[in-house]
Amino acid sequence: MLTERQRMILTAIVDDYIRSAEPVGSRSISKRGDVGYSPATIRNEMADLEELGFLEQPHTSAGRIPSHKGYRYYVDHLAPFNLLAPNEFKMMKAFFADKLNAIEQVVQHAGTILSHMTNYTSILLGPEVFHTSLRHFQLLPLGENTAVAIIVTSTGQVENKTVSIPPGVSVSEMEKVVNLLNRKLTGVPIYKLKSALYNEIGQEMQRHVEHFEELMNVLDEALDGGQDGQRLFLSGTTNMLNQPEFRDIDKVKSILDLFEETPTLMKMMISASTGTGIQVRIGTENDHEAFANCSLITATYAIEGEAVGTIGILGPTRMEYARVIGILDILSKDLTKFLSRLH
Amino acid sequence: MLTERQRMILTAIVDDYIRSAEPVGSRSISKRGDVGYSPATIRNEMADLEELGFLEQPHTSAGRIPSHKGYRYYVDHLAPFNLLAPNEFKMMKAFFADKLNAIEQVVQHAGTILSHMTNYTSILLGPEVFHTSLRHFQLLPLGENTAVAIIVTSTGQVENKTVSIPPGVSVSEMEKVVNLLNRKLTGVPIYKLKSALYNEIGQEMQRHVEHFEELMNVLDEALDGGQDGQRLFLSGTTNMLNQPEFRDIDKVKSILDLFEETPTLMKMMISASTGTGIQVRIGTENDHEAFANCSLITATYAIEGEAVGTIGILGPTRMEYARVIGILDILSKDLTKFLSRLH
DNA sequence: CGTTAGCACTCTAGTGCGTTGAGTGCTAAA
DNA sequence: TTTAGCACTCAACGCACTAGAGTGCTAACG
């Protein structure tokens, strides 16, 4: 569709614009060593590229900037997936060689590293509890009529919730039920817990326990808590303010506001990371209009071949795609390896 | 020190400036119904107040704005602690009448409400684990050589940490130790746990257990996790962007950057909330220069008379002191009541 | 026929300047 | 002691002008 020369010029423009954030003129392209054409020739090609929709002009007498379509073409066909600097590479490897830590801490820490390395905002979706199984369940009475329910999953994640105990239920009764639960349900996947609760041990409980109905409600409530599982970690949110395109308070505010809306962000991350490998959403390809001038690059990490979490980088559409994709690729694979080791 | 009329004029200026964020002129004060003097008279008083350091002038031909000293005087002597609107009051009460929830959820939710009601940023320090006691300890093996340690406190807070198990230690050995620990240490205040571990059950363990040294290290590591206890909750960080004094990206960036530095913020909150009651830190009274144009108002909440956490509101120095102080006062007392009920 | 030099044209960003208006300080009168 | 009046100050605004970067078009060149 594009000639070799057009591809070369488009690449040059995108690269330049990513670096400078200023419209790129024909003369500055011509002056680069790697393009052997005069400004006039380049002007002609640029006019063509604009007609094809790959470039835009802020106003008549300015240089060109890439359009969303231009970025998309760049990402799909042109971006040089240059490797990281060796010391950066080592840094990431060292991170996982570090001493063992709680899984969510690792994810959170990975987010910090990502945002520091890239100077963009990192958005990480913690490992989904969904695909892990029950390791241990516990119900600890606290006061007169409250108890804390604790669920530990096979990956060592701990979820807890305070529940209220109906009057009349004795401690020994509760213990009996909890024991039964641990005997019967350990190893059951979290997402099957509730149905297993009703189908497998419902009858047995009914036989042995006095306040069946009430206790069932308590368990129901307790297990509910464990299911909203996935956690969202943000890091480097203020990096957005460094970008020249977000010098405008109002633009930046709509983005930062969205950062506080965890559920919306979660949905975006989940919908962005369909399929395997690295996904790039450029500008308006994101569902939310606050991200119209942003690009979101995501990758998933997996346990036993099944994707359980997502890591992502959010930056301006004028983003260092090649670098970020390289980093995300490595980190997602390392996270996957790390999780398998733990499993 | 100040005449009655000066106090009245100072009050009027601070009130006006809080509302409008624009320098206040003599004429606009004079036009208010409650001040019966001409602009000229007020001008004279304003000149005096400026000389005394209560007011400042951005430039010669502008109105006056309160200085830090002016705000301080206003907060200490002039602010009308008007009550909240009845519906706001009800809203806050209703919040605590709500169904029982995990304690940290309550604190976090309180932060959300605070920031919404005030349109400022709320900073809450979660209940200190320090002053609670051990309710239950557990060590669950996960894989070959890892385990998750769980500590439940008397208030129902759950802390967990992944630890590595030295090779050679058997599951039954671990169980023995955990049982011993629960028997001997339940009810011991968290901050005494480590010393109690060594003094009270050190010898007994040594007698019964083979890998004493290694297990001691594991427990040490596990209990370490529980001690960094206090958690920081932020809400409404982007409200800062609404304030006209923070239209400047660079100013706002230094503030938002500080929001990401949890340890620094924690220290500030702790140092700000010495003593009981409500504390107000105006402008440069805050230790950090990013907050030079901000005021931080804090209050503590308590369990059994002992302060265990802090709630705070951060806004521009031009802050609705009266309103915010009123809200914080009510909320901190309600939180205290709520915690006692739980205890 | 593709490429390039030259040139007129366009448009933004920056600069300088006069005007406006809010607000002050001072003086003199009430 | 208070107030009216007046000259003065200074930021903000609008306007015209300029400089400069970049374009599109045409014609010449190899």
What brief labels describe this structure?
343 residues, homodimer, Arc Repressor Mutant, subunit A, 12 helices, DNA-binding, 10 strands, three-stranded antiparallel β-sheet, Beta-Lactamase
Could you walk me through the main structural features you see in this protein, from its secondary elements to its overall organization?
2 copies of one chain form a homodimer. Chain A has 343 residues and is an alpha+beta fold. Chain A folds into 3 domains: 4-78, Arc Repressor Mutant, subunit A; 86-128 and 230-342, 2-Layer Sandwich (Beta-Lactamase); 133-227, 2-Layer Sandwich (Enolase-like, domain 1). Helix content of chain A is 49%, strand content 18%. Chain A is built from 12 helices and 10 strands. Chain A has helices at 4-20, 26-31, 39-51, 68-78, 86-97, 103-118, 171-185, 193-208, 212-227, 249-260, 262-272, 321-342, and strands spanning 55-56, 65-66, 121-125, 134-141, 146-153, 158-164, 232-235, 279-282, 294-303, 306-316. The first copy, chain A, has a 5-stranded antiparallel beta sheet, sandwiched between helices. In chain A, a hairpin with a 4-residue loop joins strand 4 (134-141) and strand 5 (146-153). The longest helix of chain A has 22 residues, at 321-342. The first copy, chain A, is elongated. The model of chain A has no long low-confidence stretch (mean pLDDT 87). The interface between A and B is large, with 39 and 39 residues. The structure holds a DNA duplex (30 and 30 nucleotides).
